Amino acid sequence: MQGQSRQIAKHLKDSIQIAYVTRDLVAAMDTLRRKVGIRTFMETGALKADLGGGAVGELSVAMAYCGRIQYEVIQPISGAVDYHRNGLPEENGAVLGFHHVSYFALSRGDLEAVRPIALAGRVAPIFGEFGEESAFFYVDERPTLGHFVEYQYSEPAYDALIPQN
């Protein structure tokens, strides 16, 4: 397993994303403003996302950097969003549910190189794209790590749109 980790690491940047799911995007952003110190988010509004294999889900997403860590908050709306509903907080007042960590590939080619290593014979439950700017896939590591792991690549111009806080 250590060899697998080394093979993956050579394709990745040294930054990371922490992602949450929520039923209320506005309240979730307010919580992260108070708890983490994020001032400004990039908000997508409701958008349809290609989640791979013909699956399309409608999501609202807010993203921001705080130092080298990127924070993502996802509100599943409709369509193929069951994967993103996993981890939603119960309707008991909690606003954020931890969903995944994400590692950034150095290039789209590096993302493709990482996929067979990270999956190690498994199928990615989601492999999707946001246009030409971003591609990603998830690995279900709940049995070993307790959460999902995402690997992604975003074009520098797309990444530059995400506010630095």
Compact summary:
The chain is α+β, with helices and mostly antiparallel strands and about 160 residues long. It contains 5 helices and 8 strands; from the N terminus they run αβαβββαβαβββα. The chain is about 25% helix and about 40% strand.
The radius of gyration is 15 Å
What is the CATH topology classification name? 2,3-Dihydroxybiphenyl 1,2-Dioxygenase, domain 1
- Percentage of helical residues? 10-25%
Q: Class, according to the CATH hierarchy?
A: Alpha Beta
Structural class estimated from helices and strands:
alpha+beta
Q: State the helix count.
A: 5
- Helix and strand string, N-terminal first? HEHEEEHEHEEEH
Proportion of residues in extended strands: 35-45%
CATH 2nd-level architecture:
Roll
* Average pLDDT metric: 89
- State the end-to-end CA separation: 36 Å
Q: Domains counted in the coordinates: how many?
A: 1
Q: Low-confidence spans: pLDDT under 50, at least 5 residues?
A: none
CATH evolutionary superfamily: 2,3-Dihydroxybiphenyl 1,2-Dioxygenase, domain 1
- Give the strand order of the largest sheet, numbering strands 1, 2, ... along the chain: 2-3-4-1-5-8-7-6
Number of strand elements: 8
Largest sheet: 8 strands, mixed
